[in-house]
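FAQ: What does the model actually see?

It sees only this:
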Amino acid sequence: MSTAVVTTPRGQSKPPKAPKERPDSAALNKPRGRVATVAMAILALAWMFPLFWAVLNSFRDYAYTQANGYLSFGGWTFGNYRNVWENANLGRYFINSVIITVPAVIATLFLASLVAFVLARFSYRFNLTLLAIFLAANLLPPQALLVPIFRIYRQIPLPEFMSSSGQLLGSFWGLIAINVAFQLGFCTFVLSNYMKTLPHEIYESAEVDGASVWLQYWKLTMPLVRPALAALATLQVTWIYNEFFWATVLLGGQGDKFPITSALNNLKGQFFTDYNLLSAGSVLVALPVLIVFFVLQKQFVAGLTLGSTKG
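And it is asked to produce this:
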């Protein structure tokens, strides 16, 4: 394709005019970007204000706030944290939360990865039906299943070394199982979508090399979906650790087995509630989840953005 040359009256060649540059898209979207930034900043402040206010009041004396109001400043003390640790017995309840959360998260991610691998790797008649069955648990409110699950748990016996009550009701095993059941559908859905983005050529090469289905899952797929697993692990730790409903129902009168979220009830008095003490307890309860999030923050963000640029 030849380039047109403009000739001057004296026969001298003149280079063609350069095409007019288009306005930068970033410049066009600059006002819109500013509005979005301001809106997100306002939403972030509104979202963080309750947490900031709880942390602030956790360092204030109850008698001072009663006399001067919660909008005043002063009465600073570290005694609330010492009192809440001693009175609420958070150490024992934290151990209970670890016993419930860690096995539930590991079992959920392991079982979800198995199902997701089958859904993403193999195509068969009931593929979507199986995925819909796993997602069905997330569509029903837990309160709708309260009575049947309570009766089922009461009828299932367990050995004494697994449950002091002799049944699934009132044991850690039952609480772990119900958390796994309700979280399995969401994790399966997310992991199957991530696994579908993996190139099929790597599985074809693995089959040519003689790799079995188990090796394709364990040695090939699991390392590639590590960011997704880290993101899900962060969410699952947060949800299961903060779960309160099923722990209250299925542990019954086993108060010594309650998770740490139930320990906050011990800070409420019969006639009044020290909200400064309660704020200190809430901050201590939230610390493990915040630590997990900041440790896995890089993997969490990578898991959320995985496949977003795949065109």
